[in-house]
Amino acid sequence: MVEYIVSMMRRRSLLLFLLVSSAPFCFAGDADLYPKLPCEAPVYNSFAFCDTSLPIANRARALVSLLTLPEKIQQLSNTAAAVPRLGLPAFEWWSESLHGIASNGPGVAFDGSVRAATEFPQVILSAAAYNRTLWGAMARAIAVEARAMYNVGQAGLTYWAPNINIFRDPRWGRGQETPGEDPLLAAEFAVEYVKGLQGEYDTGDADGSSLMLSACCKHYTAYDLDRWDNYTRYIFNAQVNEQDMEDTYQPPFESCVKEGHASCLMCAYNQVNGVPACARADLLDKARKEWGFKGYVTSDCDAVGIIYEDQKYTSSPEDSIADVLKAGMDINCGTYLPRHTESAIRSGKAQEEDIDRALLNLFSVQLRLGIFDGKGAKKQYGHLGPDNLCTKEHRDLALEAVRQGIVLLKNAKDFLPLRKHEVNSVAIIGPGGTDTTVYGGDYTGIPCNPTSILEGIRSYVPRATFAAGCIDVPCQTMDGFDEAFAIAKDAEIVVVVAGLNLTEETEDLDRYSLLLPGKQMELIRAIGNISKKPLILVLTGGGPIDVSFAKEDPLVSSILWLGYPGEVGGQALAEVLFGDVNPGGRLPVMWYPESFTRIPMTDMNMRADPSRDYPGRTYRFYTGKQVYDFGYGLSYSKYSYKFLSVPEKITVSQSSAKDHIKSKPPHIVATKVVSTCDVKFHVKISVFNNGHMEGSHTVLLFYRPKTSIRGAPRKQLIGFERAHIKANEAAEVDILVDPCKHFSFADVQGQRILPLGTHVLMLEDLERELVIETEEFSVQNKKIEDKVDEKQLKKSHEEL
């Protein structure tokens, strides 16, 4: 514990230093000393790196060649130092934009002409919408607000988001920041977010296309524990087998690079199989050489310092510097590299060439952002300013995101929606009823004009009363219960707002229990016993909660998960409660029972292991009981499905595949052998709305092998689409399926394998089978079938 406290004090000191040292960058207080942009005429525009007719790589090399060694070293921090003699101002790399412009990093400040920015719902709630178009639109809106703040000196251009780690354990405090537990869902979110934030101008060409902003996919890799038991993220060694690495932990990052063309990766604090993530040359090489990553790699903040100071992995600071630079890390969030790199070079442990390589990556991203283009740097986005923040368009987009993300978990006897003209009074109970600070989750800024749940409901029913019940979300005492009882007795409808906030789950804080905090459960049960009608339970928070008691309790009519809804959460919830919006969100993570907490958070294995009573993790492999399944979500309408078009058989052609097919069932083939593997097909689905309300419905397409195959997921999400369907009408949905990607999984060596034979597509309870074969496997099967037929025919003749 003493070591942990010392470590935290050092990190807090670092953050204070960064905030102070970066102030000149944010507010341009040194305008008389340094130019605001490089390459300003007439003095500083004659350098080769200012020549926009040259390729970016050439310009970056020209800039590196002009720097002295001390100047180079001072570029290796998130707060890169100015080089006045070359006209280079200081540059702050650390800004945050997880679900809106956040104030966590030193690159953003809200004390200038911009005082607030649109607060979109936390990522876990946006993910519940399963809507790629929506994700991209939010990222583009964030980019506009970020560029606008940059233009007035209140924000940077490089943003360390999204967080695309897998929500592996329900107790993880930062799971709220992620798109959930499924690799496909996380990958799809990553692609849309990155493309939207970077302006979709990056086509992944050799030189790197222009960028509106730079997005950073984090935390690479296998990072999903912050502080639990005696473990912290700073010292945790994530023991990950090759199988899980390939088909669970890495896919979001691969898609982020290959399809999203992210210009930044952040390496994590933790070790991966005994080696600090920022020193894993094999992982960083994989991103650049196999995935085609073109960008810079940053450490998490102080993640280089802890390699020696906390993890004791190296014997000196200089060894740590050498390890990360040679592994391919480019910049250190913190001051460790500026303080120790020169001595690392003097001792021969690092070379100046290692720094030059890093600087080429860093300057290339800055060049792609256009900041070295002189006056031209302000042309494309120079018109953006304070009027482009907190716009009605962005607020409406945030509202739509919450509408689509809210998940209806229970609705006994169709208690909801409420009939607005028949409800005379509503009691709202729970701190979250009026405390809008609960709605943001972590990595937030200052919202524009937050609407509370009380305000949202009062817009429908003016006679709405409020009592906190619990004095705060931890709810350790019954103080305030009596006031809640009093308004509950008088109201026609009671809404209890319970769940989590950042006192229970956040960065550097994991949970120990999956139950509601403190005495929240007691409050809900007591209110249920005195309210006139069964109460409505609204749950806030990002992590799964074991609400089995409420799920089965007839005194709880309905349960809705609101997540962290952002600035318009109160309005969106009221619209759902009173039927102006038909809920259609689906859980992006399975909700486990409290009994799951017996499993150590430190066990990174995804697959179940009965020999040690290990149930596995996430809906793909978990074999135990659950409260709510991944993808669960109700609606005010009933929907039915019909497969319109699914191929009966898919043949993969590859002459060499026969040498890699297992001779005994189950027959499998390595996907890398099927090099052409261009066998994508479309699944056309008819979705019928059998209800009396139109609705925005999420279609989730799953897959499973027909026969049990060791290591294969129990089921796997392979596609999703969102469709708006009018009452008593049908809509057609088209989902593209890539069998070699979607039906494959990793073997114990970490190699992707594709089972041949019969596969099952699933739409809730509806199933459709199709067969996958290779030409060789098909011929082989035909010969076997012919021999069987001959034997049966011969036996029949003998019997006759």
UniProtKB/TrEMBL annotation:
Key words of the record: Glycoprotein, Hydrolase, Secreted, Signal
BP GO annotations: arabinan catabolic process; xylan catabolic process
Coiled-coil residue windows: none
Range of residues in the leader sequence: 1-28
Chief location of this protein within or outside the cell: secreted
Cellular component annotations (GO), alphabetically ordered: extracellular region
SMART domains: Fn3_like
GO MF annotations in UniProt: alpha-L-arabinofuranosidase activity; xylan 1,4-beta-xylosidase activity
Stretches assigned to the Fibronectin type III-like domain: 697-767
Keyword Cell inner membrane appears in the UniProt entry: no
Location(s) in or outside the cell: Secreted
One Pfam family linked to the record: Fn3-like
InterPro entries hit by this protein: BXL, Fn3-like, Glyco_hydro_3_C, Glyco_hydro_3_N
PANTHER family, alphabetized: BETA-D-XYLOSIDASE 6-RELATED, SUGAR HYDROLASE-RELATED
Protein name as it appears in the record: Fibronectin type III-like domain-containing protein
